[in-house]
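W.,

You were right to be curious about this one. When I first looked at the sequence I had no strong expectations either way, so I just let the prediction run and decided to look at it fresh. Below is the sequence, 320 residues in total, followed by the output.
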Amino acid sequence: MVGVRRRTTLGSWLVITQGLGMSLGPFAGGLLYKIGFHNRVFNGYTSPGWIMAAVWATFWVCATMWYEDPPVEPEQNFELQTPNAISMPPSKPGSSGHDIDIPMALNPQIETALPFPPKIAHIMSLAQWGVVLCMCWFAMTCWFILGAWEANLPIFGASDPIFHWSPFAAGNFIALGGICAFPFLLANLFVARRIQDRYLLAFGSALGLVGLVTLVSLLQTRKITYGSLFVSWWSVALGFNLASTVTVSLLSKQLPARWNGRSSLAIQYSNYLGRVAGAVWGGSGVKVGMKGYAGLEIGLVGIGTVLFCVLWRDLKAKRG
């Protein structure tokens, strides 16, 4: 639905709304817990589920009534453009440039055997497969860590004698981190148009890694406070939200236009895998040990960094 030079900007808009959800959701959940609603069916624990079920039901009604699929783009890069020429995909990996016309005189059998224009399959290069792997890994890693922190903070805050958090206090803490990250996510709307996706990915991952290392340092020195934990959470929330803005857009710029559906599904499956596994890991953080909990997340970022460095040149794509 949007051109190549607008996809990272669109991704930034999506992450802004994700940031709003990360702030409003925990705050609303904590508030509903505090209110309580003394009812066996609708109470402080079940009310978020009932409310979100109603929200999703409303969404599906609206989607059924008003949503329309975007028009299918013609596969011009893979079809015959004239009776005497065949259109081949670009030879340069990651490029979506002009078609290359090959006269049929080079292979007369094509002209005589096929009454309709044949489609030439796009052959993925090793570098393109590497980009797919890298983007899927970062999509999984970003949401694994964000999901883990959202699940872990209430449990860690409740179990630590320094905090003794209630669900309401934990919700406020998570929401505060999202609110403080929001202005920077908004500024990213303007930055994304002028900076390559790979630089945004590197900066976001590095900022999130700083938050993880800070947490390990606080746990090691046992000097963890509300302020220091908040700085760590803010760094993680902002960094990995920023990094997640470019996964879909960068991959869509590297693959043929007609593969946008496939590349989007690959990233979304990676997002959901990270979300589910991250929530399980975050809930287990106190049980397995907080240092090990943060150490696994640092290891995931480390693997992504290796992929990132090896594929640095292949991750170059159009800005915007």
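Here's what jumped out at me. The chain has two domains: 4-35+125-315, 76-113. And, maybe more interesting for your project: Residues 126-159 form the longest helix (34 residues).

Coffee later to discuss?

I.
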